[in-house]
Amino acid sequence: MSAPATSFIIVGQTRDGQRFRPSDWADRLCGIMSAFGTDRKMKFSPYVRPGCTLTGEKCVMVDGQLQFIEPLAYKFLLNFAKDNDLKVDILASEV
After folding, report:
1. What is the C-alpha end-to-end distance of the chain, expressed in Å?
2. Which CATH number covers residue 34?
3. Distance of CA 86 to the CA centre of its chain
4. Domain total for the chain?
5. Which residues form the domain of 31?
6. How would residue 54 be classed by pLDDT, with cut points 50, 70 and 90?
7. Cα 70 off chain centre by
8. Cα distance between residue 11 and residue 68, in whole Å
């Protein structure tokens, strides 16, 4: 039996309450995980998507399944949040 997949949100706010810059950080981070489709348009990964919180802070939503599909990408996203002292909200644990 494998460990549960943990989905999380990286919030664009540091632990001391400062807004993370640049303002398009979430799109840039999700762009790293995106691919070009057959229509030659960039498409975000279904596992890493930009969004915003109820308070309007930009965020990146990470599906826990990424942990099994691309473990290095999952770890990169966690380390990005840690290295930049960003808030991380755990969403769910799935079996």
Report:
1. 9
2. 3.30.70.2340
3. 11
4. 1
5. 5-94
6. confident
7. 13
8. 23
